[in-house]
């Protein structure tokens, strides 16, 4: 009897074990189990998918701009050369925060909420050449944060509320070393009031520890106007670019960087270009001023732009150029002029004259808008019409002006003496068909 009971109990135990195993496996396959197992994976995958990884000129970029990030992710690629973290929500740069990116050459941290940089934040970045920290909330820092960066060549610190006191002493001294000419340009003191508006590169270092002491009364400096450049975005790779497009600017920003190669000022409300506003940007090769409200360009507005190759003035309110406006653009190769209400009268002749003497410049968009009788005409054709109506001296009939041998390009409109090159065959149809209603009598 006892043996029978024991066998029955043994059978019951064995039959129960698979059921418990089936229940546990079923639980693992339940929706709740799947969510728990995937939760960490989904978060990681989502954040890596938000960033864009690409290769340009043989170097790897990781673009994580405007992703609401508060830190870097440990699963990001380690072999990247350029890390773009602009327009996020990073507040503190912790020690060794970027140490895994040992090949990094540029680090873009502009337009975050950074208020603190720990001394070891940039440890391991021995290859870094460009560090962008502008448009943040930094008040103080020491030179120790830059010691791990032996190759640093470009450092942007402007548009931060720098507190010019003793704690900033070592950083200011480092920035003022003559060989560090591209470190900390345009950064200014926000306080105390006695130093407000002074550039860190120029402030008297010996006065930092005395600044703000109540016993030393100093005259209040004039209020510092907010620089419109603070709204612009600086890119250093692949080529230095200052992007000020769609910022609502009504004038050219002051203190333009001197090392910028391309500048985008399109889609703003700039109406007037004054003399020498680009004088410091001597390396500029591309200038985009399209889709503004430009109606007047002063002579010498482009002074200093010796190497400018592309100029976009399309979609503005230009009627003509004053004499001498283009004389500083020795190496210009492309000129965009479309979308302007060009006035076809005597004032437009300077532009055509300049283009004729610079045949290497390709241009587009020179169409008459006014007066109504010439609306839709090419400006070159209008100038031919203007000259075609003038009587010719019989003594010069049949002679060559010296300009016809160049093939009659669009840029060749008139000779040096004002005659039409190419004779009547190149004139617009209205002039070719105009009957002779005059008899010219030359009196000696």
From TrEMBL:
Question: What's one Pfam family the UniProt record gives for this protein?
Answer: LRR_8
Q: Cite the SUPFAM superfamilies for this sequence.
A: L domain-like
Q: Where is this region: Disordered?
A: 210-229, 388-436
Q: Does the keyword Repeat apply?
A: yes
A single Gene Ontology CC annotation of this entry is: plasma membrane
Kindly indicate where the leader peptide sits in this chain: 1-18
Family annotation (Gene3D superfamilies): Ribonuclease Inhibitor (3.80.10.10)
* Basic and acidic residues bias (residue ranges): 212-228
Keywords assigned: Leucine-rich repeat, Repeat, Signal
| Domain LRRCT residue range list | 160-210, 340-391
Protein name as catalogued? Leucine-rich repeat-containing protein 17
The organism named in the record is Betta splendens
List the top taxonomic levels of the source.
Eukaryota, Metazoa, Chordata, Craniata, Vertebrata
Q: Which gene encodes it?
A: lrrc17
């Amino acid at each position: 009897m006892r043996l029978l009971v024991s066998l029955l109990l043994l059978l019951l135990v064995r039959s129960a074990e698979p059921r418990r195993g089936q229940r546990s496996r079923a639980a693992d396959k339940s929706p709740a189990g799947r969510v728990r197992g995937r939760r960490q994976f989904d978060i990681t995958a989502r954040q890596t998918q938000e960033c864009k990884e690409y290769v340009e000129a043989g170097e790897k970029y990781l673009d994580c701009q405007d992703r609401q990030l508060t830190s870097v992710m440990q699963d990001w690629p380690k072999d990247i050369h350029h890390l773009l973290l602009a327009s996020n929500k990073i507040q503190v740069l912790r020690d060794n925060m970027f140490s895994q990116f040992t090949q990094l050459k540029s680090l873009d941290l502009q337009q975050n909420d950074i208020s603190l940089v720990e001394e070891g934040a940039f440890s391991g970045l021995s290859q870094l050449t460009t560090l962008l920290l502008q448009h943040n909330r930094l008040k103080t820092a020491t030179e120790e944060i830059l010691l791990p960066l032996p190759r640093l060549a470009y450092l942007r610190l402007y548009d931060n509320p720098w507190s010019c006191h003793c704690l900033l002493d070592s950083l200011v001294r480092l920035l003022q070393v003559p060989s560090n000419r591209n470190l900390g340009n345009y950064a200014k003191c926000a306080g105390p009031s006695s130093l407000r508006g002074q550039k860190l590169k120029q402030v008297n270092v010996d006065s930092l520890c005395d600044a703000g002491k109540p016993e030393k009364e100093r005259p209040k400096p004039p209020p510092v106007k907010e620089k419109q450049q603070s709204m612009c975005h600086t890119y250093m790779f692949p080529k230095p670019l200052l992007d000020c497009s769609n910022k609502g600017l009504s004038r050219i920003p002051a203190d333009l960087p001197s090392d910028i190669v391309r500048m985008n000022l399109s889609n703003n409300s700039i109406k007037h270009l004054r003399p020498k506003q680009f004088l410091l940007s001597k390396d500029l090769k591309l200038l985009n001023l399209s889709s503004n409200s430009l109606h007047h360009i002063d002579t010498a507005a482009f002074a200093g732009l010796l190497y400018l190759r592309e100029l976009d003035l399309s979609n503005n309110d230009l009627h003509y150029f004053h004499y001498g406006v283009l004389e500083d653009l020795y190496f210009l190769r492309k000129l965009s002029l479309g979308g302007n209400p060009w006035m076809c009268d005597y004032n437009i002749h300077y532009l055509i004259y300049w283009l004729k003497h610079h045949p290497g410049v390709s241009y587009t968009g020179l169409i008459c808008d006014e007066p109504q009788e010439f609306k839709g005409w090419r400006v070159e054709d209008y100038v031919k019409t203007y000259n075609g109506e003038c009587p010719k001296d019989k003594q010069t009939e049949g002679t060559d002006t010296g300009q016809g041998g160049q093939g009659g390009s669009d840029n060749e409109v008139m000779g040096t003496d004002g005659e039409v090159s190419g004779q009547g065959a190149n004139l617009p149809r209205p002039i070719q068909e105009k009957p002779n209603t005059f008899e010219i009598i030359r009196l000696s």
